[in-house]
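Extended Data, panel c. Modelled sequence:
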Amino acid sequence: MRGPDGGGDPGAAGSASSRETRSAAIGTSVGDPSGAPAGLRRADLSPDPIEQFGRWFAEAEADERIVFAEAVCLSTLGPDATPEGRMVLLKDFGHRGFVFYTNLESAKGRSLAAHPRAGMTFHWQPPGRQVRIRGAVEPVSAAEADAYFASRPRGSRLGAWGSDQSRELDRRATLEERVRRADESFQGRDVPRPPHWSGFRIVPDAIEFWQEGPSRLHDRFLYEREGEGWGRRRLYP
């Protein structure tokens, strides 16, 4: 899979013809500005980055070629300040921030306890768009976590009880046995949210919108908090 800018060494990424085929499939040209789609203009964007994200996210959800529009790379700093990334699912967003859920004792839960800042990167291909978000992280309320947990399938709720996420597992049968015991203990009643399972909200202080362009001349607009509002500027690709 190639990255947002097409990768590193052009020779290592495949032949020119194969790259042209991929570019044609997503509606962009390779090196010919006349065949490129219209670029992203300031006038195309809302002055509110949350509203702008909502537009792009809705378009990604409506695009049948995109399987999980809500899939996002969550970047954190580990307890030893080593960068770490993993895919999670966005579960809510709005002017308060961007929400995801996890086991609080997992690697990312421990990372966020030590360094309560994080980044998110969405990449939708097609249509060749990327959104980067960074900011402080805060826990969601118990009521929010309870409401979301209750909406999950029963099997997923049992899994939250059975899994010591990110810790060493001797064999899969051990995990399956823990889930079976959880199922027995909650037989005939609702599965409650474990005390070690909740959610986090990234409160953004910067959001960048990236639109793929021909010849890697991509369009980038960065929003940054300025007081109670947002400033916006275009960046070189």
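The first helix runs from residue 16 to 25. This feature is highlighted in the accompanying rendering.
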